Each structure stands twice: as structure tokens, then as C-alpha cells.
Amino acid sequence: MxxxxxxxxxxxxxxxDYGLTQPAAESDTRTGHxxxxxxxxxxxxxxxxxxxxxxxxxxxxSSMTTKELQEYWQGVKSREKxxxxxxxxxxxxxxxxxxxRYVMYQIVVIKSGSYDAKQVTIxxxxxxxxxxxxxxxxxxxxELEEVSFPRKRLTSNFAQESIDERRVxxxxxxxxxxxxxxxxxxxxxxxxxTEPELRQAHVCLRGGKYARALELLLPAxxxxxxxxxxxxxxxxxxxxxxxxxxxxxxxxxxxxxMGERALALVRRLRRHKYRCPLLAMLIDLGYELGRPIAxxxxxxxxxxxxxxxxxxxxxxxxxxxxxFA
Length: 325
Prior knowledge:
Distance between the termini: 32 Å
Shape: globular
Largest sheet: 3 strands, antiparallel
Strand order of the largest sheet: 3-4-5
Radius of gyration: 24 Å
Number of helices: 12
Strand content: 5-15%
Helix content: 40-55%
Structural class: mainly alpha
């Protein structure tokens, strides 16, 4: 794969931010000894005039107090530094079925650095991890050379000691994957954490089980928010699905709120298949709730006028239903 990650950045995919790289060692040609060099200091971030409310000239920056400068640089760092995630597998359970027996591992995704009020727990079995590994190897074989995958055993797979060892091994495996920028930005990595629940939610939605669909969608959305920071527009289909569920459960206010979140993401893109159906739904909800809709109507007219080729007549619900059809 070389050194180009799928987010367009060049350089090694292993992020030093995640504490998994070591300083390079070189040989001294005069003595033959190995010399370890400290990592180079990162370049100082450039001042952002807009962040300070105007042009930042030497005279204006010199008038800032030390505390103001410290607060400014902390703000710059917090904007540039991605949110780090921790992966815990605190427990596992054996599932007994008539024709098979397997272990389900409970995975908790935690935002580090502060209290995470939106911790989400999912369950995956060995075959899910194995499928993820095989998918990633097709695209990132070189990057994964140093990432070990827990192997199956011929015996004792259901012994408590073996389960505990594999639980720790899978925790470390996910941490190593997340440390690779190209991997954590890949569709396969995000799909591992969210796709099973999203598929099940869409099955419930198509069957009219909107409350159950929401129970699956909302935790999946929390995971997407954590894992898709590089591309927030990936949340749009799930947000629209939650909107449809709230609407059909006659909770128009919650539906409108979900729609506003989705529209904010859609507006970042020049074209998006959800734009017109989403605007049409928000206009209907806004009219029902007595909200201002003139701007939404104008935006919908402009979006329809800008469409090229055949214009889709699908409603938002029809579009959502097709997502995993």
C-alpha cells in the first residue's frame, strides 16, 4: 500500500499520537554504535486570525496576556488533535445453540481524556474479528505486518483461561488497528462496529418496528460520531433513519432535531442524494411544528434547480429503506 493513507496524507500510517512508535536509531559511521535520536519537535501551529476575531498582526498578538495566549494555543491544539478512543473488552459469554457453540466478546468504545457519557457496548464473535482482519489485509497488508491477530486453537477454545487470553488479545488488536490512520479511516473498520446493528435496525424499520429500530440506531449513531470524525457525512443515513422512526412514532420534535443534524452535515457537500428528500421532510415537519420554513423552501428550490440528469422522486423514507436493501 505504500505510505499514502486513505485520508490523503503522506507518511507512515502508524500515528505517533497514539504512543505506538519509537524514535529511529541510526549507526554512527565513526564508532559503529547505534545512536537514538529524539523525535523532532512538531512545527509551531500557524496563528488563525479568524479564531481571534480579526487579523492577527505582531502588534495585536503582543497585546495579548500570557493567559490569553495559553488559552488560544490550547484551543488550536484541541481543534487539530483527534479524539482518542479506548477499546475495552471487559467480558465474554458462551452462546449455546443447537448446531453450534461460540463465544461473544463484549466491546466498549470509550472516548479518552474526559468522562464519556455515551459509552456504547457491542458484541462480536471470533468470526467477526476474523472477517475484519481478512478485509483489511486486502488493502493494508504491508501496514498490518506488525499487527498480530489472535489465532484459533485446536482445543480448549471454551476454557475460561483461553477466553480471557483472547479477550485481552482482541483488545490489543483493536488498539493497534486504531493506531493506524489508514485503517481507522477505512470503511471496513467503521463497518465492524456499526453495520450489524444498522442492518438489523433497517430490517425493523421496514417491518414497522420503529421503537426497536431506534433502540439499535441511537447507539450506532454514538459509535459513528466517535469513529467517523474524519468524515462526519457518514452519519447522514443513520440520522435520516432515526428521523423516519421518530416521525412514524409521532414524535415530530425529535424527528425535526435529527433532520437538522443531518442537514448540517449534508450542507458541507456540494451534492448529496439525501439533500432534497431531507429538505422536503423538514419542510413538512417545520410546518407541523410551526417552525420557520421559508429558508428551507428556498434551499429546496435551489437544490432541485441544480440537479443534473434524472431527478429522483423518492421520499426520504423510501431512500432510507433502500439503504441496506
